[in-house]
Amino acid sequence: MMKGLKPIVFWEGFPVCGLLLKRVVEEFGEDIIITATRPKVPFEGLERTLNHEILWFDEPNDIWKRRDEFSDRNLIIHTGWTHKGWLHYDKYMKKKNKAKVVVVVDNSYRGDIRQTFGAIYFRLFLKKYFDAAFVPGVSGRKLMEFFGMPRDKIYSPNYGAFEEIYKSKIPIEARKNEFLFVGQLNKRKGLDVLIEGFNQYKREGGSWSLRILGDGELRSVCNGKDITCEGFMQPSQIADSMNNAKVFILPSRLDNWGTVVCEAAACGMQLIITKTVGASDDILEEGKNGIKLYKLEPKYIKEALLYFEKMDDKNLKKGSEVSIEKAQAFDSHAYYRAFMSFADELIKNENNLR
User: Fold this and answer.
1) 191-203 and 298-309 are packed helices; what angle lies between their axes, rounded to 10 degrees?
2) Could you tell me which of 353, 340, 341 has the C-alpha nearest to residue 93?
3) What are the φ/ψ torsions at residue 84 (nearest 5 degrees)?
4) 4: left (phi over 0), alpha (psi -120 to 50) or beta
5) How many angstroms separate the Cα of 51 from the Cα of each of 39, 237, 241, 339?
6) What is the C-alpha to C-alpha distance for residues 30 and 70, in angstroms, rounded to an integer?
7) Buried b / exposed e along 342-354 (16+ C-beta atoms within 10 A)
């Protein structure tokens, strides 16, 4: 362990992929503090699995009100830059302890007008707060370079699939002839187009079923022949569903990264995802473990579903193996290596850690 290093980590709405911290926790023990706001869907046994206490905030800006509790920290890792309490804390700790600050960003590069103005704002007002950025993958790196963060100060991955939960347990050829969707049931996730595309697939003689896990305003449209809709589940139950289906589909109109894609890949699933899912640049290799949709239209979803129904077991298995290999680059081992890399880089010339 790096002597004298005292990290504090903040996750907004602590996600399942926050369990990627486990190996970092094993490294630092009681010297690391983990703070978070609670997720919308509580994960049973979270702290037990992580083997570390989480200090829960009612809202992110609580950090400023409670700054005296964390005044000995010298490495700060927190999600986003929209919470002024964290920016105040960053500035305060830089002055007090010469702390290093790493901002965690999950947004993907789009290059639109909003991000162009965002880049100007970041360079003028926000860049001074941060010594490095921690991003999911390729698109996140591109965004932070666009925002002005030096390339050698951008680290990844900060998202991924926790391998103790998400892993392949059943060979893909032995699974049900089933497509699986996991996520919020809304238009942003493309659920409306998925249902229409699946219904077209059935009208053309498609024989596989569609299982939907999640909840939201479009739940009422999740009906039709061979469509099963269930609510949100615990991670272990989701992993079981992923191990009982062959193809995962996420036709989002916009998804910053899409952790669930990595989780499905870790379970050995083939993939159908839109190009607007950030993880498509990292997890999907077209023609090998899935299909990338460049237009979100029902006919393209229908064609993708028919493509997989006709695929033989040999190619299903090859794609499954590629998915598993891709996901391994985003597990807790990869997270640990990235975390320790920026920690080492940021403190190697500091001799005044307290």
Assistant:
1) 60
2) 353
3) -65, -30
4) left
5) 18, 21, 26, 18
6) 13
7) bbeebbeeeeebe
Q: What is the DSSP string of 115-155?
A: HHHHHHHIIIIIGGG-SEEE-SSHHHHHHHHHTT--GGGEE
Average pLDDT per 10 consecutive residues for the chain, totaling 354 residues? 84 94 96 95 89 96 96 95 96 94 94 93 94 96 96 96 97 97 95 96 96 93 90 93 98 94 98 96 95 96 97 96 98 97 81 45
Give the whole-angstrom CA distance, residue 272 versus residue 319: 12
- Domains, the chain: 7-160+331-347 (3.40.50.2000), 172-328 (3.40.50.2000)
Q: How far is it, in rounded angstroms, from Cα 184 to Cα 276?
A: 16
The letter for the amino acid at 108 is S
Amino acid letter, 90: D
Distance (Å, rounded) from C-alpha 306 to C-alpha 206?
7
Give dist(CA 7, CA 195) in Å, integer: 45
| Terminal-to-terminal C-alpha distance of the chain | 15
Kindly report the pTM of this predicted structure: 0.94
Point out which residues pair with 104 in neighbouring strands.
79, 134
Are 164 and 184 within 8 A, CB to CB? no
Residue with token string 């950030």: 278
Tell me the C-alpha distance between 13 and 259, whole Å: 14
Q: How far is 151 from 118, CA to CA, in rounded Å?
A: 18
**Which residues have C-beta within 8 Å of that of residue 338, sequence separation ≥ 6?**
134, 155, 156, 157, 158
